[in-house]
């Protein structure tokens, strides 16, 4: 059976032993200043998640396996699922234990690209500013939206949050009652750079790489 993309977290990202990790949402814009001191900004594209990392492997055991995956990810059509290693679940739900038995969903809010409606949460469930969530949307190809909570909210007695403000804005194609991911929220990513390991007598080597979200 051939390999399929994006590589799942279990196949790739979960298996990496990170020693350094960074993930952010950098702006894609140009800034200019007028003679009067006014700052003018112009966006030049979609704001996408990007990251870089260093991970340690044993080149004499599982190193070849990991290297093979990295080499495969250098194909033009290759993608993988990535998540923020520092924020794997909501701040007030350590290890995702509170949401584990629920099946939350997300729906768009009419005429509001900065908010979504959540259903199926435990009553009183808290989402804090900075928490992450992800969901699929659109088709051909199916895309993955990864968003950060901007305004804190708490689920009501009906297990819902009527409007949750997030960033970046919600892109078109989100269907009502789409499955919501709050534990290890993911984006679809492409490998940008890769530095292969150099073996040492200590039987330890480090791999460095960077990636960027793709909407394809």
Brief overview, please?
The chain has 216 residues and is mostly beta strands.
Which keywords apply here?
mainly beta, Elongation Factor Tu (Ef-tu), domain 3, five-stranded antiparallel beta sheet, 1 helix, 40% strand, globular
Kindly describe this structure.
The structure is a single chain. With 216 residues, the chain is mainly beta. The protein folds into 2 domains: 13-84 and 187-213, Elongation Factor Tu (Ef-tu), domain 3 (Beta Barrel); 94-183, Elongation Factor Tu (Ef-tu), domain 3, CATH 2.40.30. It contains 1 helix and 15 strands; from the N terminus they run E-E-E-E-H-E-E-E-E-E-E-E-E-E-E-E. The strands form 4 sheets. The protein has a 6-stranded antiparallel sheet, with no helix packed on it. It has a 5-stranded antiparallel sheet with strand order 1-4-15-14-5. Strands 2-3 form a two-stranded antiparallel sheet. The longest helix has 10 residues, at 63-72. The chain is globular, with a radius of gyration of 19 Å. It starts with 17 loop residues before the first strand and ends with a strand. The mean pLDDT is 92.
